[in-house]
Amino acid sequence: MADLSQQDWEEQLEKDSNAVILDVRTEEEVEEGIIPNSINLDIYKGTEFVEELKKLDKSKNYYVYCRSGNRSGQACEIMNSLGIDNAFNLQGGFMNWEGETA
């Protein structure tokens, strides 16, 4: 897992043809907006969240965010424990995001 600043996260994502953006916030938080093309898996769903992570393609690179960066950091650690080696946490999360939103 790597904690990346918004600038590094965005730059790396832009150059990555094997990228998946993963939003681990709640449905209510997602209604406030998302980073375009992200997939939502709510980390608060516990076992269901872990089961969904197990279905992910381990060969992809995952760019993970939440509201502030804490839950996405936890999600990256869980992903690493499941054999997903390329998980990148957005420091500061969505509340500090200055890029495009949908």
TrEMBL record:
SMART domains hit by this protein: RHOD
Record-given protein name: Rhodanese
Coiled coil: none
CDD domains, per database record: RHOD
The Rhodanese domain, residue ranges: 15-102
Source organism per UniProt: Maribacter hydrothermalis
InterPro entries hit by this protein: GlpE_sulfurtransferase, Rhodanese-like_dom, Rhodanese-like_dom_sf
